[in-house]
Amino acid sequence: MKIMIYRFCRGRLTFKFYVLTVFIAVVLICGYLFPSLRLYPIAPVTLSTNPAQSRTSRHLSKLFTVVFRQFEESENDVADSVQSFVSAFPNMPVVVVSETTPYPPFPFSATNETLRNVKVLSLELRLNTLPQDLNPLSLISTEYVLFVPDSTRVLRRTLQQAALAATTNPSHIIAIAVGNGHLTCQQVKWNYADWTLQYNKDASEKICDAVHGQHALLIRTTLLHKLPQPFLLPFPESLYLQTAVKNVKVQILDSKLGAGRSVLKTPVAKQRASRRMRDYRVALYKQLGVKAVVREDGRVQWFGCKRETQRCFPSVQGVPSYILSGRNTPPCCRRNMRRAAGHVLRSLLQAGARCWLETTSLLGAVVRGDLLPWAEYAEIGIHASDVSRVPWLQRGGADADGFVWERATKGHYYRVAYSATNRVYVLVLPFTARNGTMWPADWVLAHQREFPERHLHPLAQISFAGRQAPAPNDARAFLDLKLGLNAVERCDKIGPKLLYP
Questions:
Q1: This protein's superkingdom (predicted)?
Q2: What separation in angstroms does the CA of 180 have from each of 206, 239, 430?
Q3: How far are the Cα atoms of 311, 391, 427 from residue 405, in angstroms, in the given order?
Q4: pLDDT in tens, 81-92
């Protein structure tokens, strides 16, 4: 051995280099082929003794049903996404839910044994089907449902972590990001009475009402059975609205699933997909009665009536329909009514007419500085002798701004509608002065009656719908006379029952 070392040290430099290279190569190969012989330390792997984790690791196929719900039928990556799950979990049920029979059809072979657990369900109505044939829940018998977006690749470790999170927090829905997508936590407030949906963003939170971004959802099947329409499009937005009402929270998982190939590569395809999503959203909001959506940045998107459309509630027969439903006036109608009232006040004042806010509008101005939340119309009083000063009250018709002036067929009063189509309106009510008392001029409303002329001498100013409007000089006393004692306090307490008992 000493002789070999001596010869090595005395040898040429090239020979030494060859020998060292061979020695290093042999060590590396042995370390690769025989890990137990590695010369460097290996960090020990600790296996969790948590029974829930071991259970989820062994039985993911029995725990989950994978559901694909939101995808473009003409261009998608559903087939490869399904194959990803089938390859990793051959026994895991997979359901693809579509609105109509997919065309072009998915390249699934009915005789392929590896796809025996894959089912495609069309929700298209067919007269020869049974009710359960159109219910995706009839195909789900597992404890959890994993909703997966288009173009997703499975990662076993991520599913194990998601299952562990779901069992640790059984009341939560688990959101799992897909690819490099960033998930944003949203808080959702659904104001049923005001027909308004509001979103707030909190990027630092992990417990949310809804999540924005490309992601999958792990949810208990029992919770889906408690929702009215869990598969409604657009998905998962419609699902989040239903779970938010039930105060079910969404937990964002730190791990991610893989991303598949990109789809919707052309501008035309992207526009078509965006248009379909918008149509689904409009249909959803119409079904739920959402008239206004307040976004995270404070922008308001309107989904109610416009000048070119009819108003959101039918002709009133006694009590407005929205009050019977436990709601206020739709916010779009209230906005249009506010515009009409401002337009009428400007027109009357420019013509030199003596006018003031009447009963319900004055009550709204005192209580809220605006129309009452449940206002059916706006009310403006006018001296009957000043009607002749206002040309549009004399001749009627649509003015240059599209507002329609018309005299009531029964009674000496006027209506000014927001447009010829949208019949949200303002009442212009003439009063005649006789012996110090203002009398209704040949018209009758349930809450209107005569009042002392002194309430109009002088007129006061009050904040109303973002502007100053003329009003009786003692608004509270005036309202007590019209609506009974303590009208303002009773309005705060009983709301619309003040006028619609």
A1: Eukaryota
A2: 17, 23, 67
A3: 17, 10, 10
A4: 999 999 999 999
Query: 330 phi and psi, to 5 degrees?
Result: -50, 135
CA distances from 392 to 202, 327, 353, 400 (A): 51, 34, 12, 11
**At 268, phi and psi to the nearest 5?**
-65, -45
Distance CA 459, CA 191 (A): 37
Under 8 Å between Cβ of 387 and 347: no
Q: At what angle do helices 475-483 and 487-494 cross, to 10 degrees?
A: 70
pLDDT tens for 369-386 read 999 999 999 999 999 999
Question: Alpha helices, DSSP H only, in 317-371?
Answer: 321-324, 331-350, 359-368
Please give the structure tokens belonging to residue 100: 């109509």
Q: How many residues does the chain have?
A: 501
3-state DSSP call for residue 175?
strand
Token representation of residue 483: 């609506």
Give SS3 for 477: helix
Q: Cβ contacts of residue 159 below 8 Å, gap of 6+?
A: 60, 64, 146
